[in-house]
Amino acid sequence: MDKLVITGKTPLHGEVTISGAKNAAVAILPASLLINGFCTIENLPNISDVKLSCTILEALGAKITWISEHAITIDSRNITSTSAPLDLTSKFRASYYLIGALLGRFKSAEVGMPGGCKLGARPIDQHIKGFEALGATVDVIQGKISAKADDLVGSSIYMDIVSVGATINIMLSAVLAKGTTVIENAAKEPHIVDVANFLNTMGADIRGAGTDVIKINGVEKLNSGFTYSVVPDQIEAGTFMCAAVASRGDLIIKNCITKHLDCISAKLVEMGATIEDLGGDCLRIYCDKRPSKATVKTSPYPGFPTDLQSQIGVVLSTSEGTSIINESIWESRFQYTEELNKMGAKITAQGKTAIFEGVDELYGAPVYASDLRAGAALIIAGICANGTTEVYNLEHIDRGYENIEEKFRKIGAKIERISE
Ligand code: UD1
Q1: Which of 227, 259, 242 is nearest to 374 (CA)?
Q2: Looking at residue 75, which CATH number applies to its domain?
Q3: E strand or H helix at 5, and its extent?
Q4: Which domain holds residue 288?
Q5: CB 271 within 8 A of CB 292
Q6: Whose CA is nearest to atom 38 of ligand 1?
């Protein structure tokens, strides 16, 4: 079992370069199955969810050639199966995108139930509602989702809830459908737009991604032989922004789309941080004083992202006064607060609300990541704390952060991965 050992109380200084977005990459990879051809994808983050996605695509018959650490060519001409193995799909959430892509191209998909971070109930009723609206029959039996159709025909779908996964999955299944599909109350996250851009590069006709109404005009044929570069990771950038403020440091964050960060920048500035847009997809963030208290409510984009909730929770744990976080997306996203309390934080979490009484200092302790973003938050806490922190359950963190200890070490953290 690996652990990270962090010697804390180090303000972070220097430059960090953001990788490609995990949540875009894990949708774009299965989306490549839609073409009877090949494409090259660049700026892929080197994370375990991407490697697992590639393993699944290969198991279905795709041929993957690694061009560099961050770029691959996927040849989807000889897909031999539309059934994705449960032992692989259960390891992460985004495996549900295989349903939309396989159904879209082959009118048939059998995919093991998706796994992923345990954040509370994670139903997929809105995905199923979308597939059915296009004419598919969907069954969930023995841990597998099976979707079939004679023909997919465009339809109007009003989402009961704003869902990132369902919005993308319906786009995937509608690209080659007959006629026009309209998704109303669609999610607007940057990676929705990125997946739509990828699909349009492929020859799809998708309009309105990034707004709450997306129109997909079905096309008959898609392009082969194109190259696409994945958007920078909004959540990784936000994680380093929180780390800068929590550690009272000064960071230059490179390769980020500053507009995507408005939701986190606004909150950190309200708390006392200074942010300068340096142009050229680059920003500087610094904070040399104790941040002030804040109220944070997570909501779909452009609201404050739930995936940055635990990281800002670390900032609030040592901020001046009493702060509140209201988590409106997931039922069970405060497990990290128990770990922070082991480090001296004073956080009371009940249901979807947590109250943070800001303490002067955190102290190092052994802590356990309950999920991907909680893991990132515990690393930030270890960097800020007095003494030594050991972070366990790194498999969660490795799913979504490329080379995290190396990136933190380069900006001054004393952090080491140790295999036990
Ligand atoms: C994606 C992200 C995840 C992020 C989340 C919200 C990926 C791979 N994961 O997850 O990191 O935390 O968006 O920004 O991109 N819901 C339903 N029925 C459905 C689908 C969702 O009730 O069919 C509910 C969920 O329980 C949740 C809310 O809708 O309360 C949002 O979920 P959704 O946006 O679908 O999250 P994911 O796509 O799973």
Answers
A1: 242
A2: 3.65.10.10
A3: strand 2-7
A4: 2-19+232-419
A5: yes
A6: 165
Ligand 1 center to residue 329 CA distance, Å?
A: 8
In contact, 57 and 64? CB cutoff 8 Å: yes
Query: For 331-349, what is the mean pLDDT?
Result: 96
pLDDT tens-place string over residues 244-292: 999 999 999 999 999 999 999 999 999 999 999 999 999 999 998 999 9
Determine if ligand 1 sits within 6 Å of the CB of residue 123. Answer: yes
pLDDT computed for residue 144 by the predictor: 87
Higher-confidence position of 302 and 113 = 302
Residue 165 neighbours by CB distance under 10 Å = 21
- Counting other chains too, the contacts that 141-146 makes at CB distance below 8 Å and 24 or more residues apart are 143/86, 143/90, 143/112, 143/113, 144/86, 144/110, 144/111, 144/112, 144/113, 145/96, 145/99, 145/109, 145/110, 145/111, 145/112, 145/113, 146/109, 146/110
How much is the pTM? Answer: 0.96
Q: Whose C-alpha lies nearest to ligand 1, atom 35?
A: 163
Residues 41 and 162 in one domain: yes
- Would the pLDDT of 42 be above 80? yes
First CA to last CA across the chain, in angstroms? 5
For residue 112, the model assigns a pLDDT of 83
Q: 107 and 148 in contact (C-beta within 8 Å)?
A: yes
CA-closest residue to ligand 1 atom 21: 163
Q: Are residues 220 and 242 in the same domain?
A: no
